[in-house]
Task: structure prediction
Amino acid sequence: MSIKKIIKQKADERLEEETPKVESLENPSLAPTKAFPWKWVAIPTAVCAIAVGGTFAVLKLTAKPSTKNGLDQEAIVLPKKRTMTTTISDRCAAIYKGFAEKIAPVALKTNFMNQSVAFSAVDAFVSLSMEVYLSADAIQSAYCQSLGARDMAEVNETVKEISTYLGVAGERSLGEETGVTTGLFGGANINSLWLAPGLRLKSGIDPLLKELSDSYFVSAYHVPPTAANLNVWFQSVAPEGFDELPEIKVPDDSNASCVSAYFLQDHYQDGAQVVLKQQYDSKNHYLDYTLADGTTKKVDYIKNVEDAGIVYTGDDFTAVDQKIAATQFHYCLPDPGKTPMDILDAALSREGLTSKKYKLTTEAPYFKINSDLDITSTVETLGISELKSASLTKLVDDSEEYLDVIKQDSLLTYDYRGFYAASATVVANTGEAEPPKYDPYTFSLNRPYYFESDLYGLPVFYGIVMDPGYPAAA
Amino acid sequence: MKIPYSTAKAFIAGGKDAQEEVYRSTRKLLYFVIRSIVNEEEDAKDVYQNVFVKAIANAATLQKPEALQAYLLSLAKNESLNYLRAKHQEDPSDQIDSLYGEEETRYPYLESYYPFLSPKENAVVLLKIEGEMSFRDIAALSGLNRQSLNNLYRSALKKIKRFYQEEKRHEHQENH
Result:
């Protein structure tokens, strides 16, 4: 007999003898027929990280005080006051970019259903990092390894830098401090942690809570993270001008959620907006757009002419960059017969591109993407699937939490206002030397395409437009 | 201890047959877990009764049938630690982080299985072989990492093997 069989047999015999009998279960007729009024018992339930994508509107970007939702009175942690930064360290930029470039293709590929789809990197990074920070050392270690970070402290520092670099942008736009719009661009990264009232926090976690406040700028609530509660919070923290928000769609049975919201507005200058709005209202400024099924529809679009624009050519696609005020779109148009999914990996890598200058005309359709992503599978990509077995172990006492689902709901719109909202400052220049002449090239996004949007050199949104879906002028 | 998915689902739905099946397939392992924490036999029996009563009472709130086994083990552990806390007015949070982790702590019940093994080694061997648990599940229960568990398990098996070989050799010598 093998040693294992001997061990099992002996243990079995001993435990059979020792283990007491539960009469009601030995005799099922005595079993309880209804639930007992027991006090709260630890139950393994879901942990959701909801990452909320960006949207934009025209009005000035002033963050609403979050006390409007009445939650801050019940908060167990409140965020540290942020100071806008205009620089980011190379290390933190590389860690964030590593995350974005690793996760974006997974998020897009696993959620693409022949409809337009978009992924927002900032809120995904912050919410996932928060989840990992509150979980076991082994999970943190795998996450850091996957991102090339030395340790969790470096990830936390990256969250802090990203949140203040891409998320607040005070002097460049509004500033939580002043509430005054100062530029064309505004961004806000607002985060929260939700714990059902029954969940008890571990003792001795003051340093952890302090880090949540200092680096994640978190408001933590002992309030159930139901979809209704999260949407109320989302509405309450949205900066002014965000008159349309995506609906957060999460299961109502979660009992702990790490939530990160990211808002972004980037306006065309006032003068440009007037012209673009006139084109939109004229109902005759259309681009013929060919859908994936071969049918054609007329869509509103923005035409931009540059005397010297660069056209990039890769395997099966061409690409151009288009800047609004602060953000820059990197449009990738598949060659005829190819789809955005065919070129996604090559477009993301940006490797092996050749470039040439042209007198460039870009025709970019308005779009409106309402995206509802399930990005749970990204935990495998990041080597942190252990979260599905045990999560938040550093935070929650007496409970066995595990990750259930990671959802991201976002609404991206591009139209005559731009991709963001802000006031405009027009600087008129004159007296420049005549620029060199180039051959003409028209880059018309007249069929399904892929895009990325970068902000200050870092990626923030990735998307595939199948049908632009922007409503026609009334 | 393996709970079939269909049984777990029926247990959550309140099925009496499933309750009985779950009870029969888990009772020994759950008692072992409780007894390894609560050393006094009578105390352990009280906790043991409570675990089943609570598991059934709260079954409907469970969301994932596949997590039933982990839930029951977690319940057994937490009920045991709560019992100790209530009885001794102690904060067992350290033990939650790593069961059987304190070298200076005595675990007479565990040591009674194989006295030449450490409490950790005894626990890992019993959970792995008698409980048919994966290292992943044992890690979740005990707070020990999987690599440590693997090392403990291999080391314990070697010692037990040597013990039985010695025992066999003695028997052989006595018979001749």
The radius of gyration of chain A is 26 Å. The CA atoms of residues 107 and 375 of chain A lie 6 Å apart.
